[in-house]
Amino acid sequence: MTALYFDLDGTLVHHEISFEEMFERARHEANVSDHDGLHDEYVTSFLDYFGECHPEPYRAALDDLCNDFSLDTDGETFADALIEVELSHTDLVDGAHELLASFADDPDHELGILTNGAGHVQRAKLETHGLDSYFDAVVVSCEVGVGKPESGIFEVAKEKLSGDGFVFVADDVERDVLPAQRAGFTGVLLSESVDSRADNCVEELSAVRTLLA
């Protein structure tokens, strides 16, 4: 049996608007006044918490922001608004459902998600788009305490599924595919551009089914 892991953002789902636009929409939803440098400071703080695999990087960064700028809301309210905006502006990559459904009754494959992110947010994306039922394992950096490109998250993934071989499908060669290959996975790069460093390259998700037939 082969354990087939997918990245989430950029591979199975994509964002319809920029993160800065998401922040601005959430700011309006939370009735927060604008301040010079507000978004930039949020990004810096969020990336710090995200890199540390804090279990709630959105809320932690927005708690800091509310305190530093004396905002007329609290971090939890702002975070809830931001997460809701992100979920509502995330859409499926073409062919995602069809590909995953094709593996649903396949005894030769088990499916997993291997993603950097906050656990409750990434799991909500799966549920929002009806993907959660396809997966036997979900590995999220802020739940397991280590993220890509570190080898540790790939070792956690190996423990979650008992495959004879491991495959990882993702859209970023540097942060996803090459680290996975170093950890013993067969890498599949989803990209319109061929990169010879990847074990395999596909332009569309549907090609993964043919590749693993």
Automatic annotation (TrEMBL):
<protein>
    <submittedName>
        <fullName>Putative hydrolase of the HAD superfamily</fullName>
    </submittedName>
</protein>
<dbReference type="GO" id="GO:0044281">
    <property type="term" value="P:small molecule metabolic process"/>
</dbReference>
<dbReference type="GO" id="GO:0046872">
    <property type="term" value="F:metal ion binding"/>
</dbReference>
<dbReference type="InterPro" id="IPR036412">
    <property type="entry name" value="HAD-like_sf"/>
</dbReference>
<dbReference type="InterPro" id="IPR051400">
    <property type="entry name" value="HAD-like_hydrolase"/>
</dbReference>
<keyword id="KW-0479">Metal-binding</keyword>
<keyword id="KW-0460">Magnesium</keyword>
<keyword id="KW-0378">Hydrolase</keyword>
<dbReference type="InterPro" id="IPR006439">
    <property type="entry name" value="HAD-SF_hydro_IA"/>
</dbReference>
<dbReference type="GO" id="GO:0016791">
    <property type="term" value="F:phosphatase activity"/>
</dbReference>
<dbReference type="InterPro" id="IPR023214">
    <property type="entry name" value="HAD_sf"/>
</dbReference>
<comment type="similarity">
    <text>Belongs to the HAD-like hydrolase superfamily.</text>
</comment>
<dbReference type="InterPro" id="IPR023198">
    <property type="entry name" value="PGP-like_dom2"/>
</dbReference>
<dbReference type="Pfam" id="PF00702">
    <property type="entry name" value="Hydrolase"/>
</dbReference>
